[in-house]
Structures are given as C-alpha cells and as structure tokens.
Design a protein that fits this description.
By secondary structure, this protein is of the alpha/beta class. The chain has a single domain, classed as Rossmann fold (3-Layer(aba) Sandwich). It has a seven-stranded mixed β-sheet, with helices on both faces. Strand 4, helix 6 and strand 5 form a beta-alpha-beta unit. Helix 4 packs antiparallel against helix 5. The two termini are 23 Å apart.
C-alpha cells in the first residue's frame, strides 16, 4: 500500500491488472494529480493488484483465481480501508474509488459491494465482464465480486445506499478501447436506479496512461 498527499478527500486508486501499489506513481498518474495534491484537495492511496496479477498470469485454476478476486475485495474492506481511516486520524469520511482497465472494475465493484464506505467510483477505460479471464468459467466467487452479475437481483438497504452514490464511467474510443464495456455497466446500474454517467472521450484517446492522466484529475476536481 502507498499514499500521496497530506490532506483532502481520500481516493483509493486501484492499479491495472498486474500492477502494484506504486504503479500509478511510476506511470505518472500521481504527478498528473499534483495540483490537487498540493492544494490539499485529495489524498491518494493505492494497493497491489494481487488478484489481477493472478488473473493475467493465469496462476492456479480458474476457480482459484475467482476465489482470489473475492478474497481481494474482502482484504480491501477489512485491511486497506481501516488503514486509510487510521491514516486520516480515525475519520470515517466516505472514500472515492478509481482505477483504469481492471482497476476500473475493482473501483466500481467496491462501491457497489460497500456503498456505506465509498461515495463515488471513477472507472476509466474499464473492463467489467471478466469471464474471459477465467476461461469463460463462472462461480459464486465471481458472482459476488462482479456488479454486472449481482446487481440485477440486489434489493434492500445495500441498493438503497447505492442509489445515493455515483458511478462515473469514462472511456476513450481509440486504440485498444472498448467503450461498450462502460455502456453495459451503465445499463446494469441504471436498471437499478443507481446514478451513473458514461463519458466518451473520442477516437484520439486510447487505452493508455496518457488518457488516464487527463481523466483522473478532471473527474476528481468535478467530484470534489
């Protein structure tokens, strides 16, 4: 786990599939958010993508990798969130989640699973349907980890809380981008009355770090 900044809204940024906690610094995303950090508007946190690394390296069986994804989310809520709150002096202020590619999936999934902890999600160039990473297999672990799977049947207090949250889905339309993933996620959210927005960024924006350098500070400034 890593952090940047001294004051401001806590933002948990999930790395891309195989990334570690310092990926966003090496790839220039922290610098891109520099003015917001220096102004005390935000405080960034990031963590290793343990489940994502297993996903891209195909470590173990598909059922093991799906189990690990669910365990990763459990670790975020039970270990990383308490560490963030301790760093904030015990404050339980809601956290913004964000991430690009598979990181966007984790950002949206954590908000949908734990809306009492997170207040908004920024998914950049996201992939939200993951079966192809698990040899087209499915399990209860993947069901509970995936908003596109569990949201259609969700009711009760969790859904009531989600309807007070916001999901922002941004994607370019250039090389390696698939904005259809964002539209599919938005449709699932919208059918349950969960506020969301899809922002298409055009064909000049491809699935790469320079795109996310522009997206993340733009949306963090908007969300406040």
């Amino acid at each position: 786990m890593a952090r940047w900044g001294h004051f401001g809204t806590p933002v948990l940024v999930f790395p891309t599939a195989g990334g570690d906690a310092e990926e966003i610094e090496r790839q220039g995303l922290v610098d891109a958010c520099g003015p917001l950090l220096e102004a005390g508007k935000i405080k960034l946190y990031s963590c290793d993508s343990v489940a994502g690394y297993a996903m891209v390296t195909k470590a173990g069986s598909p059922s093991y990798r799906m189990w690990l994804l669910n365990q990763f989310h459990d670790a975020v809520i039970n270990e990383i969130v308490p560490a963030i709150r301790a760093d904030l002096g015990g404050s339980d202020v809601p956290i913004i989640t964000s991430g690009a590619s598979i990181g966007a999936f984790n950002a949206v999934a954590m908000l949908c699973r734990y809306p009492d902890v997170f207040r908004a999600a920024i998914g950049m160039s996201g992939t939200y349907r993951l079966q192809r990473f698990f040899d087209d297999q499915f399990s209860d672990d993947l069901f509970f980890a995936s908003p596109v799977a569990f949201l259609p049947g969700l009711e009760g207090p969790q859904l009531d809380a989600l309807r007070q949250r916001f999901v922002l889905l941004a994607a370019g339309q250039g090389e390696w981008e698939d904005i259809g993933e964002s539209w599919a996620m938005a449709e699932t959210l919208g059918e349950k009355g969960i506020p969301n927005r899809v922002d298409p960024w055009g064909t000049e924006w491809r699935h790469d770090w320079p795109t996310w350098h522009h997206m993340l500070p733009h949306y963090l400034a908007e969300l406040g």
